[in-house]
Design a protein that fits this description.
It is built from one helix and no strands. By secondary structure, it is mainly alpha-helical. The chain is rod-shaped, with a radius of gyration of 26 Å.
C-alpha cells in the first residue's frame, strides 16, 4: 500500500501497510450468532487498523514537531549571538 508523499524509487522512508482481511462472501444460511461473531471480528479488525494508523500519524507529527523545535532553538542561538554583536556595535 502506498501513501501520498512516498518515494517510489525506494530512497525515502516507506510506511508500513496495515494488513486487512479480504471481505468474505455472505452465507445467507448463517445463524444470528455467526453473523454477530463475524461482525465483531470485522469491527475488531477495523479498530486495530485505526489504532495503528493513529500511531503512525502521531509518530510523523512528533517527528515534524521535533525538527521544528530544533530549528527554532537554532534560530534562538543565532539571535542571541547576533544581539551580542548588535549591542557591541551600538556601544561603539
Amino acid at each position: 500500500m502506498t501513501y501520498p508523499g512516498d518515494n517510489p524509487a525506494g530512497t525515502g522512508s516507506v510506511r508500513p501497510s496495515i494488513p486487512l482481511t479480504p471481505e468474505q462472501d455472505v452465507n445467507r444460511d448463517d445463524s444470528l450468532g455467526n453473523l454477530i461473531r463475524t461482525a465483531t471480528e470485522q469491527v475488531s479488525t477495523l479498530v486495530r487498523a485505526e489504532i495503528e494508523l493513529a500511531k503512525l500519524e502521531l509518530v510523523n507529527s512528533a517527528k515534524q514537531g521535533g525538527i521544528g523545535a530544533g530549528f527554532f532553538a537554532g534560530a534562538g542561538v543565532i539571535a542571541a549571538f547576533s544581539a551580542f554583536f548588535f549591542f557591541f556595535m551600538v556601544g561603539e
